[in-house]
Specification:
7-stranded mixed β-sheet
Amino acid sequence: MEWKRSAFDWNQARAFLVTAEEGSLSAAARALGLTQPTLSRQVASLEEALGVVLFERTSRALLLTQPGLELLAHFRTMGDAATSISLAATGQSQAVTGHVLISATNGMATFYLPPILKKLRKTAPDLQIEIIASNELSDLRRREADIAIRHSRPKDETLFAKRLRDTKAHLFASKEYLDEVGRPESLADLEKLTFVGFDQPEQRLGLMASRGVNLTTANFNFSTSSVTLTLELVRQGFGVGILPVEIGADYPELENPSSAFEPISIGTWLVAHRELKTNLRIRVVFDLLAEGIG
């Protein structure tokens, strides 16, 4: 290999890659924890080292030049390699200290994690746990999280996934709301009610129809992807919502408006990068989550 041909600085390469991915120097600087002038100098130094112009600088934005576009794929490969090195090194750590980042939906994070974290605090008090409570999938390969709790099985073969128990969800409504509109006597009667939840109702209508309830988007006056907000809207009488059975059952002001409605089974997977399974602090958290959620 001709080592002199690859003499540019990796920090400069990373500066270019993140700037291209984020779309601006300011966003890239925030992502890397650098100042914008520092990042700009690193990109300029890389352009000088390579002898090409990577960005066309306009008054409004940075635009990749043709050489920049052609080189971007190679720099992405470098970025993936750097991440793999970090993963491999992290996997060798055997200390039950340090930082662990968990990604979970806001419902899982709110209703399922606290009792598990209480046990974790006793088992490994020196761990610092950070939780991303979001319905967006974190990219474990890019270290956006160490462990993720998901409701779909990952397809990436570099990830390790453990199937946990399924969660059952059912219809819930406040007794006050049902007193007002009347309790449905059949599945068809549910179609006359107002529903809350479902961030994109049109994508869930087929699920409801498969259970004998033919709704339209007109049934949904309030929509959200948040389970915690859905719960609160249902409790305050905005309409019918779908909630995990063990959550809805904790609120005596709620009831199931239709015992004929078939419960919805929601799969749950605990996911981590395969190399992180050899890291003791990740494994301790992973195993406690698996035990606690079941």
